[in-house]
Amino acid sequence: MKGGYEHYMQKEIHEQPEALLQTMRGRVAVEKTSEGNPYHQQRVKLGGLVETRDIIRRSRRIMFVACGTSYHAALAARQTVEELVEVPVVLELASDLLDRCCPIFRDDTCVYISQSGETADTLRALEYAKARGALCVGITNTVGSAISRATHCGIHQNAGYEIGVASTKAYTSQIICITMMALALAEDSISKRERRDQIIDELGQLPEKMKAFMKDQDQAMAQLAAQLKDSNSLMFFARGNNYATALEAALKCKEVALIHSEGILAGEMKHGALALVDEHLPIVVIATKDRMYRKMESVIQQLLARSARLIILCTHGDANMKQYAARSDCKLIEVPGTVEALQPVLNIVPLQLLAYHITVLRGHNVDQPRNLAKSVTVTD
After folding, report:
1. How far is CA 227 from CA 79, 129, 164, 224, in A?
2. Beta strand pairing call for 260-265 and 61-66
3. Is residue 313 helix, strand or coil?
């Protein structure tokens, strides 16, 4: 059942390259056609959105509704949707949307994301939006689930069964699904062609990139976990797309390692979080090469000036980050580079492994953390 792995969570982390392939299989034409005009080729085909694609493009706004890890997946891909589709994007936690009785209009498109397709708050939010005439799109990993049946259209993740309570491969698969949705909706845009092609080309290379560095990272994260297992708190700093990575990494440490952890938007660092920084608190800074790189470099400098205990997640071969590591006691986690839209998919992998190894060293139940269930089917 566990395929030679000790726990389902470890197995599912290592299944992610194959899960990404399955999510894209039959949907993404990785190579351009060599005959005729390459722009006449439909490089992203989502059968579930064929009839509603034009309606989504004409929407007043696209609203992503989810809980927990699924919400973080939407946050990671939000910038891609905004950039390619050029429609305002709103993110809503399902429970909060219901508490506020959020206004929803007939020309809104509401996208509901749930691994199980049975999440109670998300399902109630779906019924709330349908009653107001909005187009409802589902992204789930379970065929025949309540959300897949109740939505007007949608995308099935095809990531395979996920047994561990802490979601891993479903998270990265959800980011890919939302990215594919954005690529499909932007197909007719001439101004977005080059950007779309860059992302699609990198989608084809993503599983191999992930697979290539995963084995080495597993060993490196086991060593790092030994240094962090006795920590009482962890902090994760990031900006842009990777703010979702910080939140998701913090959630994994809470869920399975039972360590208090927070994901902090680095732009808000001076509005409170900086007061917690000292030489004892481990801080993970996500500073891969994207539009936020220079700003994250400034964050690293400010944290080092306050003697912070830093762990920097950076792009492989980044000379600047190696200099910081040489001048101070901070440690580096190196990941392969890719386009900005897909970088969170690679960045989360070592942090998932870190949470897993800390949990094992602390002696907690990896696959069934206390007080938690795989699918939240009741509401408060």
Report:
1. 35, 47, 25, 5
2. unpaired
3. strand
CA atoms of 223 and 271, how far apart (whole Å): 33
In angstroms, the Cα distances linking 6 to 47, 65, 164, 214, 249 are 37, 34, 12, 17, 21
Least-confidence region, from 16-25, 321-330, 354-363: 321-330
Contact 130, 150 (CB under 8 A): yes
The angle at the Cα of 110, spanning 206 to 157, to the nearest 5 degrees, equals 35
Output the pTM of the full model: 0.95
Residue 86, pLDDT above cutoff 80: yes
The DSSP bridge partners found for residue 310 are 283
Q: Tell me whether residue 223 is exposed, middle or buried, using C-beta atoms within 10 angstroms of its C-beta: 0 to 12, 13 to 18, 19 or more.
A: exposed
Tell me the backbone φ, ψ of residue 62, rounded to 5 degrees: -110, 125
3-state SS assignment for residue 255: helix
What φ, ψ does residue 245 adopt, rounded to 5°? -60, -40
Scored b (16 or more CB within 10 A) or e, 179-194 reads: bbbbbbbbbeeeebee
- Do 197 and 183 meet the contact criterion of CB atoms below 8 Å apart? no
